[in-house]
Known about the structure:
Blueprint: H1 12-19, E1 24-28, E2 34-35, E3 50-54, E4 58-67, E5 81-88, E6 93-96, E7 111-120, E8 123-130
Antiparallel strand pairs: 1-2, 1-3, 4-5, 4-7, 5-6, 7-8
Amino acid sequence: MRIVPKSNGLTAPYWEGARQGRLMVQHCRACGWMWHPPTPICNACQSSDIEWRESSGLGEVYSHTTVHHAAHVAMQGRTPYLVALVQLEEGPRIVANIQDCPMEEVRIGMKVEVTFEEISPGVILPQFRPRARPQ
């Protein structure tokens, strides 16, 4: 069993962007604030004049924790796993997994980039991995 997120009218642009390999966040045209997760109005000024913009997908680990006890039946047998709060360069923070990196090497401030994982047919989940080092 795997937990599969469901798209709705509010989150559809986020999930459609993920299917296209794009990390989308909401942006307020009135005050310029950007945020995640999606809400129907701006959290900063309460304007409903909002749009979706593509994020660079670059950020850094703001915080992280290792989960040792499955809080949901779908996660039984998958512990331990790491959950991170990633601060995007554009400002919003997003909860995600860190892939392609041993859990013990994840550090606050570690530079990361978005990657996309198909967790179910047609369901693509943004994840993060350590940023590739410049050549």
